[in-house]
Structure formats: structure tokens, C-alpha cells
Amino acid sequence: MSVSICSALYSPLNLHGVLASPAQSKSAFWSSSMDGESPLIVILVPTVKTVCCSLHQSCSVQWELYKVTAVPIAHISLHPQREQGKLLSQTDCYVSLWLPTASTDKFQTKTIKNCKDPVWNETFYFRIQSQVKNVLELALYDKDVVTQDDHLFTVYFDIAKLSLGEQVFMHFKCDSQVRSEIRNGIGWHECVCLLFCLKCYLQNLSFFSFLKLLCVCFCVGSLEKEFSFKVQGSYEGTQDIMLGSDLVFGFSAPAKFHYARYKQPTLDVTLPGKKRHEIFFFPDLYSSPDHLDVRLGFDLCVQEKDFLRKRQNYVAPALKKVLQLEQDLLDHETPVVAIMTTGGGMRSLTALYGSLRGLKKLNILDCATYLTGLSGTTWTMSNLYRDADWSQNDLDKQINEARKHMTKCKINSLSLEYLKYYKKQLCQRKTEGRKTSFIDLWGLVLESLLHDGKDNHRLSDQQRAIDRGQNPLPIYTAVNVKNNYSTLDFKEWVEFTPYEVGLQKYGAFVRAEDFGSEFFMGRLMKKVPESRICFLEGMWSSLFSLNVLYIWNLSHSSEDFWHRWTRDKIDNIEEEPLLPLKLHELRTRLFTPPGPLGSALRSALTDRFCVAQEHNFLKGFQVHNDYLENKHFCRWKDTVLDTFPNQLTQSEEFLSLIDTGFFINTSIMPLLKPERKVDVILHLNYSAGSQIQALDQTCKYCSEQGILFPRVDLSEEDRKNLKECYLFDGAETPGAPVLLFFPLINDTFQKYKAPGQKRLESEMEDGEVDLYGCCSPYSTYSIQYTEKVYDRLVQLGEYNILNNKDLIMQALHKAVARKRQKKK
């Protein structure tokens, strides 16, 4: 037996989908509750096939109650020629309404059978919040009793277009091209809606609270019964509690639900047995504290700002010494220098050691403020930051330790002993509440390949290596993806530092030690032990997250050929009357789902073998009504879903994280945040194949996004025969950083063992480093080197840095001059 109890019986348990107060979010990107109540929308949907109705409240301090009545006065003509079997009968249609910012439930009309011109007359109620982006989705379905209901199309309507107190007749229609395409599937549609808005005052409500139930039950029958409590949309969802022999649910076992005080939830109670039960509920309501465990804002965190002040004490003297300046550099004259690396498996791990040793010998390592990496270079970085003073000491110890593991036999990693260890570790992660995958197993394999035994090091432990500003701040990168979308269509940059993990696009960050824990509306709900860093390394270098489309792109310049199969069919549809469109408002759109063949092909192209999944710390958040006007969001607004707020990351249960190289093999994006004010970037490239491809892709991406980046102008001759280093000063792009580009090539190293020191005849063999040949030992997928192969690559990486000292000094001088000029 099931009992549904409206939350209004106890107190206004209106689920509230906002995230933070204005004081907690300088960006004002996420919506805020202010101290008010959400308005009520009443949507009346009669005589209509598809309904598109909603409204926008005025942004006043007090929330207001709205009543929206939609009365369509035109019908929809349907042409049922979707399937052969349905030519003999009319469609059995119903309309689904979903406003996720107001309710977790999807509402639907009754099904009108055997009718091509169906008419409904039903009323739906929503309570909405003016500061969030409210997009109503109205989907038309053809009911099928045998197979899954056919999804014909969905209309997306931004209710912010409608003003208070006005009566509007809305007529949505497709243009001729879209109408023709839809007719080939099911039929075209036109509908007219009457929207009427009323308003009235409601009392203030807090935006987040939790409910604790104390239930006293009297029942006839056997004891020890199990009761099920459910609050749809709450963090807990459903809780099952056993009734004790005293027939009382006491405080020792209360049912707690954390929910948004905004969406009008109901408490559903499922009772055991079929006999009559009499139940008395005594709910206690609590408002949550204002403090959020998710940091909202695009500024740097307090810890990173403190690090920058301390790092200044190392960088300024080092630059003065390296550049042979007569006077000390003032704070505003000291450029921010960053070392940026690319991925490339064990090749990038090895070459980075050489590059860093070269920078150390030039005393430039102390001039760097940031060090970023992805894929294989994250293995080098995580090894280095175990030593709290690694950049202040000689790097030979770390290089020799890495040599030992690079040259050891790797077969032991698949021994029975290790397999048992892997299983035990994976079971432990599952017990902790994590969602395990093959990526976690890959991380454990990496641990065995690069270390002796279990490595208990964690990302937050690296704070010890930067607490005095003694080393550059490490930043590790990944991208968040979405199922059924290619990385060209959907990806979001994720950065990891010893302080925080966050998504740049949303301005949302959590402490490094809390990453992987469960959050709801910015609150830490369930603390999960911090992952050992080997699991993060597996995710940062998840070569198993490829899909067919990525393999295609390896041999072709773009995926344009496959776009008709991998992208959603979205069309703008006309409105009559044409409502004025403000900057923050979205156009009305029509989504036409693909047929069975299109869906199957899209899945075949975009499905990834596996991805690393972590609990989404954006869960329960909703985007602000003006989010598209936020300059920080627009900087990283590069996905096909950015104008579909209901489908952005905050709606997902898990983050799906993969190697950044599956989009662009670069870790440069965190350095292009204006808040970090990076002046010089040393681009250390370790890619396989084309050495310029990742840089070209970065330039194109930055140009499309409006991100300041120097223009890369290489002649055809240079592209065919690359030099060891290029300087792009960004003079044509004011505000762009100076870029030093180091491709991984073997040029003068073949004849010189050190800058200006030629090789003897007997030493010429040491200069032979086959980086990219078909028999090269440096393949991205090679996991074992000989000592000679390892040493030569380290020496090559070091030599290419040392041999281009003059260009590095030129870049640093230019950066200092710009800083001084800017101050004048």
C-alpha cells in the first residue's frame, strides 16, 4: 500500500534549485535564493497537441505567485507515416511537460487514441524561481503498447520571454524546410497557446532544508515491518526503515531528507502488508546553514593567492639573477612564468625529466610559478611532488629512480599476486561508495609500473611541496564529457591542484581532499576518503576512453563527414507574435530525435570503452537566468548544450572524466584564466606525429572562444623542418602571453652532445634518437625502455632547452619590459 502526502501539510517543503547567496558567489553565475519565496505557475493545457507555455517573473527582492493559463486555440495536423505498421491507424499521442527547475517529475497529459487532431484539457502546477534559467520542455509522444513510445519531437521554450500580467497568444510553427524533414518522420505541427499571468505575494522561505520524520504507528499484524519513505528530488531519495517491536520510529532511526525548498516535493510512504494502518507523522523541518562546501566564483582560491605571494620571494630574485638586472624586481614588475606540457605516454614522462633538468641548469625553474600537465607528464609531476623541495635540489635522484622503473620487467604487474591486490583495492573503492571502472584498474597497473609496492600519496599531500612557495604550483588537467556526444561537441575543462578541483566553465571548486565525495546543492553530504593519486593518474591518462570517432579523427582532419550522425537535430522555430528577445533569453527550439538507424550509428561512433566517473559536486545546482551574459561562462562556452541549461553538468549524477588529449593534447587552458595573469608560457611538446597540430588546435580554439593567445605564424618550410624552439611574442594580440614553443625533435643534438660541443666520431651513435619512426622505441604505447633508450631521450630533452637559452632569455626580458611599461 502506498500513501502520498503533500509536503505542504507540514510546512512549505518547496524544492529550491538554487545554489548560493550573492555573498557566496562573486560571479553571480549560479542562481541565488535571496530571502524570498518562489512563484507559483499554473499551466492549463487544453485542446493542444504540443504545449509551450511559461513565463518570466520580475527580478524583485520578493518572490511572487504567478498563474499561467495556456489555452491553445489551434490544432496540430499529424501525418502518421513514421512506420509501415502504423499506416492503418491514427496516432495515440500524449504531451509530456518537464520543467526541471520547478519539479523533478515529468508530467504528461492523457493519451488521445486513434486521433490525428487530439484535444486535451488538463491543468498542471509549477512553482518557479525567477533567478534560475527556466526552460520548459514539451515533448510529443506516440504511445505504443508493444514497444517503447515513439518520441516525435520536443519544443524548448524559455519562459523568461513572457512578462507579468500580460495575455499572450503564442503560435509556434516550423519553417518549410524543417516541416518537410519532420513530415518524413511523423508530421509537422503548429500550435497556438494563450498565456495569462497573475501574481500575488507569498511568504519568504529559505532555499535549502532537511526534513526529519518521527512516526508513531499503530498496526494490526506481525511486527518488524519495513517502511519505505521517499521524497522525490531529495539527496536521499528513498529510505527503508524497520519498525521496532515497540511500534515506534524513534529518534534513534529518523528518516532524514535533504531537499531544495523550491520544487513542491511530496513525501511518499510505502506501508507493509495489505491491512489497514493508522499513521501519525511528526516532521521536524530544519534550514541548512548558509555555508557552502563548494566554492563558487571564478577568482583564485585563498590558498593559491597565498602561494603566489610566497612564490614571489623565489621568482623575483631568480629573474634578477638570470636576466642580470641591476635592480630588484617589484611585485608588479615580476612576470608570471608557466611551464606547460603535453601528453605522450612514457615518452612524455621521460622527456619532461630532461626538460626540467635543463631548466634547472639555467636557473629558470625558480622563475616558474606554474607547471601544468596531462596524460604521461602527470606521472612525472606526481613523482616529483612527493619531494617537498624537488626544484631546489638536483634532479638526478628522481631521474635515476624513474630509470629503474622504466627499465624493469613489466610482466610482474600481471602476476597473480598483483591481480589479487588489484581486486582488493577495487573492492575497497566500491565499499567506500565510488563507482569503479576499468580506469581504476589502469591506475593500479600504473602504480605497479612506476613504483615499488603500494603508493599512499594523495593529491592534497602535495600541499607540503608548495606551502612555502618553494616549487611551482602543479596543475593537472582532464575534460568532462557526456555520453552520446563527441568531445568536439561536448567537453568541459577540469583542473586539479593540491588545493582544489574544479570546472573553469562554471566557477565551481571543491577541496582536493573532498573530490569524489557526495555533494548536494553545494553541501558535503557524504565524505568519501580521498583517492590515492594512482587512481587520478589513471584518469588523467585514460587511453581506454577512446571511441570510433576519435580513431577516425587520427587519420582525418575533422569529423564533418559524421556530423549528421553525431549531432542533435535542433532547429529554431518561429513564434507569432515575435516576442522581443533579450540577451539572456533563449530562442524557442525544436528537437527532432533520430530514428533507430541514426541512434545506433551515433552510439557506435561516440560510445567510449570506459570513462572515469566521480560523484558530481554540481549536483542540485541550477544556472542563473542570466548565465549566457556571464563573461566567464562565455569564455569556455564551447559545447552544443550550452544553450540547453536543463542538460548541462549540474543535472548529472556523475562527472565523466577522460584524458585531455582526446580533445586537444594540451594542458594550457588553466593558464589562460585571466585571474592567473600568466605572462610567459614555455610550451613543451611531447606529442607523437605532428608536433604543431596541438598548437594549431589551441590557436583555433582560443580564436573561436575569444581567449587572448599569440598568433602562431609558421612558414611552410618551418612546418616541414621544425626548429628546436620558436618565440611567439603576441605583439599583435595585446594582453596575450609570450609563448616559447619547444617541439620534441632531434636536430642539432645529432651532432652536438652539449651546446657548442661537437660529438666525436665515437659518440655519433648517442645522437641517434629515433622519435617517430615505424620501429621507434618511443611509441606512445611503449611501457618499457632500455637504459640507453631512456638516457638518450632525457639528454635530448635537456639539450633542446639548454641550446635555446638565448630565446628563453629574450622572452623573459620582453615579459619584464611589458610589465614595467604597463605600470607607467
TrEMBL record:
Domain PLA2c: from-to ranges: 287-824
One Gene Ontology cellular component annotation held by this UniProt entry: membrane
Names of required cofactors: Ca(2+)
Transmembrane segments: none
InterPro entries for the chain: Acyl_Trfase/lysoPLipase, C2_dom, C2_domain_sf, cPLA2_C2, LysoPLipase_cat_dom
Subcellular location: Cytoplasm, Cytosol; Membrane
One Gene Ontology molecular-function label: calcium-dependent phospholipase A2 activity
Assigned EC number: 3.1.1.4
Biological-process GO terms, alphabetical: glycerophospholipid catabolic process
Membrane topology: Peripheral membrane protein
Alphabetically ordered keywords of this record: Calcium, Cytoplasm, Hydrolase, Lipid degradation, Lipid metabolism, Membrane, Metal-binding
Domain C2: 57-172
Record bears the keyword Cytoplasm: yes
Catalytic activity, as annotated: a 1,2-diacyl-sn-glycero-3-phosphocholine + H2O = a 1-acyl-sn-glycero-3-phosphocholine + a fatty acid + H(+)
Note on domains (UniProt): The N-terminal C2 domain associates with lipid membranes upon calcium binding.
Protein name: Phospholipase A2
Species of the source: Bubo bubo
